[in-house]
Design a protein that fits this description.
Number of domains: 2
Shape: elongated
Domain Response regulatory: 2-122
Modified residues (4-aspartylphosphate): 52
CATH superfamily of the largest domain: Response regulator
CATH class of the largest domain: Alpha Beta
InterPro entries: CheY-like_superfamily, NreC/VraR/RcsB-like_REC, Sig_transdc_resp-reg_C-effctor, Sig_transdc_resp-reg_receiver, Tscrpt_reg_LuxR_C, WalR-like
Distance between the termini: 36 Å
GO molecular function, one term: DNA binding
CATH architecture of the largest domain: 3-Layer(aba) Sandwich
Keywords: DNA-binding, Phosphoprotein, Transcription, Transcription regulation
């Protein structure tokens, strides 16, 4: 796995690089600016880019802008965005462009090494890894969507965990229910969100995007 890192804090940047190299992962480039990471992506053609949200010169949305641009240039690039806290408008700007090979984590998650590495590998494999706190806040903002109001509390729990990128077995373990119960809840979610099995889309991804799109409209 070839990785580039964009982080303006040199201690965190080098710490991430050391952590990943200790796991025998190939960190091929690092940068302290958004322009620098785009150059590194063009030169090194990595599998995954890890980017901070707030970077120089304005420390507002440079990281998100760079992530969107990186995905435009290389649609197959996996992107893991790190943020000090939940920034809803930035999260939805990135996530509503598609969630395949995409992660959005709070920086505190990096300190939980196994969770961070699991999220990184999941994103690199084409999955998703959305921080539970990000999901919770987006879900709260989107609760007024009429289709989402059809969901039961348990179905909302299941959809939230789907948005984190968890598979059925992991969801069952988290909620302490059977795989069969999770499968039943997911079928009900698809039905209540009007997602037909004949649709030419990934219904799992579409279900997550429904409320993210609603949040973006209301932002």
């Amino acid at each position: 796995m070839r990785i580039v890192i964009a982080e303006d804090d040199p201690l965190l940047r080098e710490g991430l690089a050391l952590l990943l190299r200790a796991e025998s992962l190939d960190v091929v480039g690092t940068a302290g600016t958004a322009d620098g990471i785009l150059d590194a992506i063009d030169v090194h053609k990595p599998d995954v880019a890890i980017l901070d949200v707030r970077m120089p010169p304005t420390h507002t949305d440079e990281g998100i802008v760079a992530a969107v641009e990186a995905r435009r240039r290389r649609p197959d690039l996996a992107v893991l965005v790190l943020s000090a806290y939940v920034e809803q408008s930035f999260a939805t700007e990135l996530l509503t462009g598609g969630v395949t090979g995409l992660g959005y984590l709070l920086k505190e998650r990096v300190g939980r090494v196994e969770e961070f590495l699991d999220a990184l590998r999941r994103v690199a494999a084409g999955g998703t890894a959305i921080d539970p706190e990000v999901v919770a806040q987006l879900f709260t903002r989107s609760r007024h969507d009429s289709r989402l109001e059809r969901l039961s509390p348990r179905e909302r729990d299941v959809l939230a965990l789907m948005a984190e990128g968890l598979g059925n077995s992991a969801i069952a373990e988290r909620l302490v229910v059977t795989d069969g119960a999770v499968h039943k809840h997911i079928r009900s979610i698809f039905a209540k969100l009007d997602l037909s099995p004949t649709d030419q889309v990934d219904r799992r991804v579409a279900a997550v995007l429904r409320y993210l799109e609603d949040v973006r409209r209301r932002a």
